[in-house]
Amino acid sequence: MVRQELACEKGIEVSLRTVERAVESWRKELRTAALATVRFETPPGRQLQADFGQCMVSLAGERVRVHLAVLTLGWSRRLVVRAFRSEKQDHWLEALEEAFRHWGGVPQEVLMDNARALVNQHDPELGVLVFAERLEAFARYWGFRPRACRPYRARTKGKDERGVAYVKGNAIAGRAFRSWAELEAHLVRWTREVADLRIHGTTGEVPLERFEREEAQALQPLRGRPSFLAERELVRIVHHDCCVEVEANWYSAPQSLIRQRVSVLVRDQRVLIRYGGRIVAEHARLQPGSRSRRVIEEHWQGLVPQRQRREAVVSLGPDPAACEGPSRPVRGSELARSLAVYAAAIEEVAA
């Protein structure tokens, strides 16, 4: 285009290489300006930088993708690291709450990236930044100001970007774990015994000592506030397996409620299923995202896979729905009664 304009407006015919040599100095200045970063140090208690990073981890002999939430205090560089199976909005909020409680306070602002779970719209050119409604409510509850870094400019939260790389390389690389619980325990221990006590490359100080000396008292106190996530109510439909899905887990309800709309209350570490104004099932809450089931045995009594129903010829009918009794994680192999039970029923009907 430049060559065309020179030819039309100035009558000058030049080669492409001549134009490239002429503008090389300007292009170099632009590249330098894009890469240049001025380190911005925040005062104690001002900022927390939050980010997620993904890595493959050996769990029980299998390669599993793990999403690491890494939260870094801007002044002391003290870390909190948590592992999740995905990066949903609840995982961001849960990690932030755990960090607040771990440090005993809340910073004035939280800087995060433009994750779809957190930011609905961000256009710096137009000055538009719209956070998810639930994130804004969470920020009001805890008293911090949410901030999002400029899109495609991760260096805005460079302290945490380097923290993610540090966790991957130091805490995770080359390690194998027998279970998810062992991975979580390792991250807690590593944070306490390694990350908190190292000499930080930028500050030249131990993060824990720097935190205790100047940042701990600068954080906003928790004032005994309960978890923002402690209680929330959802609406779910009971599936044909007598279960409702909550936080990528499944909890059983009475058979009589199949295909019915129920209210699910998540309160602390309990999941309460309500119908018609009364509690019909209560379960211990599973780790969000673990894709597990909690089933009260009476809820599945009489259920069999469709193929076995056809083979049994007759239906035994559902047992009376029960909403009491302990629930427990259930394996798929426990879905059906023994076929001998159905064989006996068929013989009884034939007689």
Protein described:
- This protein has 351 residues and is α/β, with parallel strands linked by helices.
- The chain folds into three domains: 34 residues, no CATH class; 172 residues, Nucleotidyltransferase, domain 5 (2-Layer Sandwich), CATH 3.30.420; 120 residues, no CATH class.
- Helix content is 33%, strand content 26%.
- It has ten helices and 16 strands.
- The strands form four sheets. Strands 1, 2, 3, 4, 7 and 8 form a six-stranded mixed beta sheet that branches. The chain has a four-stranded antiparallel beta sheet with strand order 9-12-13-14, with no helix packed on it. It has a four-stranded mixed beta sheet with strand order 10-11-15-16.
- A hairpin with a 2-residue loop joins strand 13 and strand 14.
- The longest helix is centred in the first third of the chain and has 20 residues.
- The relative contact order is 0.10.
- About 7% of the residues have low confidence.
Strand content: 25-35%
**CATH topology call of the largest domain:** Nucleotidyltransferase, domain 5
**Count of strand segments:** 16
> In angstroms, what separates the terminal alpha carbons?
93 Å
- Mean pLDDT over the full residue set: 82
Could you name the CATH class of the largest domain?
Answer: Alpha Beta
- What is the CATH architecture assignment of the largest domain? 2-Layer Sandwich
Classify the helix fraction into a percent range.
Answer: 25-40%
Please identify which CATH superfamily of the largest domain we are dealing with. Answer: Ribonuclease H-like superfamily/Ribonuclease H
Which value, in Å, is the CA radius of gyration?
Answer: 28 Å
**Secondary-structure element pattern, one letter each:** HHEEEHEEEHEHEHHEEEEEEEHHEH
Which blocks of ≥5 consecutive residues have pLDDT under 50? Answer: 306-325, 331-336
* Shape estimate: extended
Alpha-beta content class: alpha/beta
